[in-house]
Amino acid sequence: MIVKTISQPQGAKRQLFARMQEACRTDVERAFGVLQAQFNIVNVPTKGCSDEDLYYIMKTCIILHNMIIEDKRDILENERSAAQLETDTSNLGCQVSCDPNEEYAQLMLKRQRIRSVEAHNVIRNDLIEHLWSRAGELD
After folding, report:
1. CA angle centred on 93, ends 88 and 98, rounded to 5°
2. Taking the model in full, what pTM does it have?
3. Are 67 and 57 in contact (CB under 8 A)?
4. ∠ CA(43), CA(49), CA(51), 5° rounding?
């Protein structure tokens, strides 16, 4: 769920929420930047894919990324030439096709729920209260 940030937070609770959200957003943007640079599939439109398919696609990309990092580390530790390992995954010719027709009704319901202003406000306020209740634990 994507929750909009509070551009000018008023009060300690909302300021804490904005600060925590910005920190998490930065981490997610960096992670997706790495995945987009390495795996073209992350750039492919996926509106017709199910949540489960998206979960497995992203999890697979993350696992592959971690495997590549481990392999690079092993190569450096063993002082092997970097040319021995090919990590270029951009030319794998991998195509993912999701049929948007089979889940179109569910997609539209999800979209309608996501765009609900009332639901967004409830979720954001719940997140603010949750972070505020944990603020003592975080210090």
Report:
1. 125
2. 0.48
3. no
4. 100
Distance between CA 5 and CA 29 in Å, rounded?
15
Amino acid at 35: L
Q: Of 27, 23, 57, whose CA–CA distance to 39 is shortest?
A: 57
In this prediction, residue 102 carries a pLDDT of 57
Positive or negative: CA dihedral 75, 37, 17, 15: positive
In a 10 Å sphere around its CB, with 0-12 CB exposed, 13-18 middle and 19+ buried, how is residue 17 labelled? buried
Tally of CA atoms within 13 A in the half-sphere of 58 that contains its CB? 12
CA distance 28 to 93: 27
Tens-digit pLDDT profile for residues 26-41: 888 888 888 888 887 7
Whole-number pLDDT of residue 90: 47
Q: List pLDDT tens digits, range 93-130.
A: 445 555 656 567 777 777 777 678 888 888 888 989 98
Pull the structure tokens for residue 39.
């795996």
- Whole-angstrom distance, CA of residue 62 vs CA of residue 70: 12
Among the listed residues 51, 50, 32, the one whose alpha carbon sits nearest the alpha carbon of residue 41: 32
